[in-house]
Amino acid sequence: MPSKLIQPEGWAPARGYANGMLTSGKTLHIGGQIGWTRDQVFESRDFIGQMEQTLANIAEIVREAGGEVTDIVRLTWFITDKREYLARQKEVGQAYRRIFGRHFPAMSVVVVAGLIEDDALIEIEATAQID
Fold first, then answer.
1. Other beta carbons less than 10 A from residue 67's beta carbon
2. Does residue 60 contact residue 47 with C-beta atoms inside 8 Å?
3. Which pLDDT tens digit goes with each residue over 74-99?
């Protein structure tokens, strides 16, 4: 099986990238997701709100590929404000658990000067192994 494009039903088309690609080995590579809705609209200008939406987007892509959040093996977070991230750790944990429960894959957090979408405060890439 060649790679298969994963695009959740009803989502606006990604521009210049794929939301997800499922390989023949059942590895799902999820392109950087940000805190906008399926219609590419930011409903929140707040870090926690965007983080929760970003994680929800990842979860939806994994489910579209036939998996669950427990199939996620890696997350790479790109954030624009280290101080806010550190100051809001309790809220970060609560929002994370609302979407992913107590599943904690390998993770990295990278502080960046900015993201392509000016209103984005966070972007997360993910990898999942779908059985």
1. 20
2. no
3. 999 999 999 999 999 999 999 999 99
